[in-house]
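Comment thread on ticket #2218

A.B. wrote:
> Attaching the input chain for the structure job we discussed in standup.
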Amino acid sequence: MKNRIGKFLTVAALIAASPVYAGVKEGDVNIGVTAAGQLRGVYFEGPVELPEINGPLFGWGDIDPGFFTIENPIPAEGLFVPANGANIVLEVIAFDAALKGWTPGFASVFNDPAETWNIGPVPFDEHAFWHIDSNDPGFVPPPIQTQWSATFRLLDTGATGYLPSDPVTLTFVPVPEPTSLALLAFGALFFAVRSRRPSTSNRTIQIGGLWVAFIVIAPTSQTMAQHAGDVVPARTASGQLTWGGFQPDINVIALPPVTGLFEGWADNDPGFDRLITPDPENDLFPLEPGAQIRIEAVQFDTGFRAISPSFVIIDEPGERILLGNENLHIHLTWHINSEAPAFDPTRTVWRATCKFVDTGSTGYADSEPFTFRFANVDCLTGDVNGDTFRDGNDVQTFLYVLLDPETAPEVERCGADADRDGLVTLSDIPAFVEVLLDGSSVFDPPPP
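C.D. wrote:
> Ran it. Output below, let me know if you need it in another format.
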């Protein structure tokens, strides 16, 4: 036993002396490519704890870990940033019975060998939903089975043609889990954790089936990556909640169609990611310890809802979802529900006006309201006839849609909805004229 502990301490010392890596995402599978052109997925933490869920799925589930393209090369790990043109696909090798992966928006399941999930073109920050299904015929309840494993590999179906990765295995445990005597025995030396501390870099190894995490103290800005595609809750210097990153009010998010668990259109982007580096110029500062940040519905269009990883649903004023503490990183499912009793099929955009509130000890003031816009069809605002231009040729089609929106094709209704409130009405005329004169719209996507 003495020799074994000595070996553990030696390994701990070696890992503690290793460099801190910038441009990686703690808690996610970080994806890069080797110098030989092979994909590689690196997960720096131990078993993933899944919280209990009860309806519409049952058992345990969560959206972490996600999949993140590294932003900076890591020569010490032989890992480099994938080139543009790569398209990454997860291919199942073997999942334990009752363990399932759901694609974003709960569109489909992957758990059988050779089944795939198209994660997408690089760069990305994508999250599946990992689910231990207690209703599955193959489910074996704890304490008979206490962990479930998912083994997969990463493929490149893009122009870069990287070689497939070696197999990657993630291990999931339901919480609360049975106490491990082995962990108690070594508790004074090591912590088996899955955490997101902003001031640490977690490195793990597996020794005899036991995951051991070593915590290396390092500045936050060097250990974490900020994902530009997420809304970034922050605080002002005066103590009011605010946000940076993705700007809801000037973007329209097109949701893909889904069937099965949910009907309609759904996805889990954009997510919410805590601010890492202060930005005094824009009055953005990281949240402080003690914060408990919630998103509160102010007004949602009928038929739209937001769903937390534990299936808390908000769609009425005052309803809230907990996003997390000062280290928050979470992706909700945004859902245009085609089965809602008052669903309006003439709509092409659904609005969700929200605000951030703090129920923690920091007591920050509520943020100003902000409005997401989610579409069930992708279009160029003002291009009503679909020729990719916004000019006088769109006027006649715009008038046809304005007079009879119910019979117009949805892509024409989308283009004619110049103020992006979801419906084609007289209020779109000034915005449509402005788009024709300027040749652009405030809702145009940013240039690549």
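A.B. wrote:
> Thanks. Noting for the ticket: Confidence is low (pLDDT under 50) at residues 1-20, 177-223.
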